[in-house]
Amino acid sequence: MGAGPKALRVVALAATVPYLVLKSAWLSGSRVGIPDDSPLLEQGTFLAAANAVTLAMDASVIVLVLVLTRPWGMRVPSWLLTLPAFVASGLLTPILLAFPAQLLIRAAGQGGPAAAGDPARPFLDPWVFTVVYTGFCVQGLALAGLFVPYARRRWGRRWQGVLGRGLPSPTGVVAGAAAVGAVVIAAVHLYWAFGGAAGVGEERAAAHTAVTGVVSGAHAVCALAAGAGAVLLVRGGSRAAWWPSALTWTGSAAAVCWGLWPWIASLGPQLDGGEPASGAVQWIYAGQVITGICAAAVLTRFLTSRREG
């Protein structure tokens, strides 16, 4: 392994430290970064369980980095690597899109507070968001830099070259469903991104700023990427295969993860002390998951057909 991958491995591992330290501290009873009147202090067992789950998720990044950089990683079963890599791509991609834009908006003096919820009862100290999301961005970039050459060595012949012959019509129907879902999901998210209030609930509508709008914009971009990538894969042709594959991978992963994760979180107490997700928001979560699954199915069929070929 060359100097570049070694450096990326160190960077990726180091980027997990702030989040792991904070979560470990909170699980041990520390209140570092939590204001005295934060609604987090009222969550009890649910918060402890949420912290334990998210601690384990970030710790799994360490395992993923080792798989991508150690010789034995090439012998790990494909399915065992693909699932965590898909989840990591899905969770980190919208953060990579939205968080730098949020920093620029705040640097320009626009937007609202760093944390959601009631400003009179801050959720977390602002520095926590900066430290944690900066770490997530670094993780995402470093993991991408490690995963691409690994995937090229192990599965390169499946996504290199040109797209070639289109996929059969049943897969085309699935791609069409992904495209329609992507357009609907993106339209709703863009409506919310630019301040639309219908369906989000009074409290969340009142808290809208340019900073929160960027998040909805990022989800719209990811949904469109999933739908567009799926259609390109089905149509085939003389285009290079790698970029429609990458588009479908990242878009579908983001749609699935950022539909499923907040939906699961909405089933418990709201950690930020805000109102629960409205019915419309819940439907959008479901639509994101379905759209992402359809796009991922098209990508799977495309890669399988390349293996068969």
From TrEMBL:
Classification lineage: Bacteria, Bacillati, Actinomycetota, Actinomycetes, Kitasatosporales
Record's keyword annotation contains GTP-binding: no
Lineage top rank: taxon: Bacteria
Record field: transmembrane: 7-26, 46-67, 79-99, 127-151, 172-194, 214-234, 246-264, 284-303
Keyword Ribonucleoprotein: no
Name this polypeptide is given: Uncharacterized protein
Keywords: Membrane, Transmembrane, Transmembrane helix
